[in-house]
Write a structure and sequence with these properties.
Blueprint: H1 2-12, H2 19-22, E1 29-35, E2 41-43, H3 67-70, E3 79-85, E4 93-101, H4 104-118, E5 122-129, H5 130-136, H6 139-142, H7 147-154, E6 164-172, H8 175-191, E7 197-203, H9 206-224, E8 229-237, H10 241-251, E9 254-261, E10 269-277
Antiparallel strand pairs: 1-2, 1-3, 4-6, 4-7, 5-6, 5-9, 8-10, 9-10
Helix pairs in contact: 4-8, 5-9
Length: 283
């Protein structure tokens, strides 16, 4: 059920693609209830009974926050049976920009522009390299979303210098303000010289946003269908990010990356997921 999925997310401290706007699941957890291996129930929920041992709550100013030992422990210390989560206002405005850029330096420059122009409206900043897209999709699959990437895949560009697909999502309750901020981004990119844009697509409807997001959401699924895949979430300084992918690519048959840049708590870092495809054995 959805309840168990949420508890599983807490147990793994899942971040998600909208970390840029909302932060980590850990930072949004106010209290939890946990059952230990011996059956003992401990809780930091507000409505805890007097007989239940109390964990430190996040909104307390002193003491060790024991609840955070269980969040991300993957069930090794106890099973999370209930949680109190901070809720956010559901955004009514959704817009998405997708860029195809030439280098990782372009990606990082684009991130700085987006972060400076969108502020708290920036809900996601996703990066996919062409190697990953070519491993997961055919050129025909991407013609509708980003023709230039489809052309790159058709022409075998994925074996040359890496190029990147960047998704910038905006969510808020004020569409008029967001449109002004998006115009500011587009103008900075067009008039500046810090980003070499090969192609771009803008989506300003829910249907168009879903269509572009389908590329990112389908990517890990389609990669997994290609064979045995190893996934790693790694954290690097900006200037070392893609060198780690290139190092892995030199050591393995195939290494690709898709990642989200985090502007919330750790602006100097990003999380990179490497997918290492083992060479299929011949019989």
């Amino acid at each position: 059920s959805d309840v168990y999925k949420r508890q599983g997310n807490l147990a793994t401290n899942a971040g998600g693609i909208h970390y840029a706007r909302y932060g980590s699941l850990r930072s949004n957890t106010c209290g939890i209830e946990v059952v230990g291996a011996d059956g003992t129930i401990v809780s930091s929920l507000r409505n805890t009974t007097n007989t239940t041992p109390i964990l430190h709550r996040r909104d307390n100013s002193i003491g060790v926050d024991m609840a955070h030992l269980f969040i991300g422990s993957e069930g090794t210390l106890g099973i999370i049976t209930a949680a109190e989560i901070n809720l956010h206002t559901k955004p009514t405005n959704h817009q998405l920009l997708m860029y195809h850029v030439s280098t990782i330096e372009d990606v990082l420059s684009l991130f700085q522009i987006a972060k400076g122009s969108l502020h708290n409206s920036l809900s996601a900043f996703e990066v996919m390299d062409v190697q990953g897209l070519s491993a997961a999709f055919g050129a025909e699959d991407l013609k509708a979303q980003l023709p230039s990437i489809a052309k790159a895949l058709d022409g075998g560009e994925s074996s040359a210098a890496p190029t990147f697909c960047v998704m910038i999502e905006v969510q808020s309750t004020d569409a008029e303000v967001d449109l002004l901020r998006i115009e500011r981004i587009v103008n900075k990119i067009e008039t500046g010289k810090s980003v070499n844009v090969v192609d771009q697509v803008a989506a300003d409807s829910i249907a168009a946003v879903k269509s572009l997001w389908s590329v990112r959401e389908d990517l890990p699924v389609k990669l997994a269908q290609r064979g045995r895949i190893f996934k790693y979430d790694l954290c690097f300084p900006f200037d070392k990010f893609y060198s780690s992918v290139e190092f892995a690519r030199a050591k393995f048959v195939k290494a690709v990356s898709y990642t989200h840049l985090r502007a919330h708590e750790t602006p100097e870092h990003l999380v990179c997921r490497l997918l290492l495809e083992k060479k299929k054995q011949s019989h």
